[in-house]
Design goal:
This is HAD hydrolase, family IA, variant 3. The chain is α/β, with parallel strands linked by helices and 195 residues long. The protein folds into two domains: 4-15 and 83-194, HAD superfamily/HAD-like (Rossmann fold), CATH 3.40.50.1000; 17-79. It has helices at 17-29, 33-48, 54-65, 71-79, 86-95, 111-118, 121-124, 131-134, 141-150, 165-173, 184-194; strands at residues 4-7, 100-105, 128-130, 158-162, 177-180. The protein has a five-stranded parallel beta sheet, sandwiched between helices.
Length: 195
């Protein structure tokens, strides 16, 4: 019996880089998305693991791309590219009345700043787990196991919802059910079948 639904943030509850972030940032920097994405993703791993700050991330990205732009302006463009998908947020709000809900996100040290607008703590309370704070990131098993243990959850009673198949596969490898998020309608359908 499923008791807990664990959600990813970017790409599920809020927009992620592929949805509009890359486009906005590339446009601001005056480069192609093809040039931006490999640098952004490579540096993003260290940001998500809390090994570098968001400011350091932006400085390193500008240097690697050979672009001269104001770091503070890049930060604004970057962080404003993430906005809440209200329809998904509403579904999570509804589901929390019947299931435990948890947020697990690969995100840097700017999560709390962004969450001032998103207000995800109103849904998830203290069950928000940010990779940079934990110094662990998906798809590594340690972050999933940490949360299961911290919240005394059984893997076989937990569903993980993410837009990245690699993250879903890891959750399944440790005994959780997994749903690959593609759209709200598809999520509702998959949840009906699973719950």
């Amino acid at each position: 019996m499923i008791k807990t639904l664990m959600f990813d943030n970017c790409g599920v509850i809020t927009t992620g880089d592929p949805e509009c972030g890359y486009r906005n940032i590339a446009e601001f920097l005056g480069i192609s998305e093809d040039k931006l994405i490999p640098v952004w993703e490579n540096l993003g791993t260290d940001l998500d693991e809390g090994l570098i700050t968001t400011e350091d991330f932006h400085i390193k990205a500008l240097m690697a791309l050979g672009v001269s732009k104001d770091v503070a302006e890049l930060r604004k463009v970057h962080l404003r590219s993430y906005y809440v998908k209200e329809d998904v947020k509403d579904l999570v709000e509804l589901l929390k009345h019947s299931y435990g809900v948890v947020l697990l996100t690969n995100f840097g040290d700017a999560f709390d700043e962004c969450n001032q607008n998103w207000k995800l703590d109103k849904i998830f309370g203290d069950k928000i787990f940010v990779s940079a704070k934990l110094k662990m990131r998906k798809p590594n098993e340690d972050i999933y196991k940490y949360i299961l243990e911290k919240l005394s959850l059984n893997a076989n009673e937990t569903v993980f919802i993410d837009d990245n198949i690699e993250n879903i596969q890891t959750s399944r490898n440790i005994g959780m059910s997994g749903i690959l998020f593609e759209s709200l309608d598809q999520l509702k359908k998959d949840l009906r079948e699973l719950l």
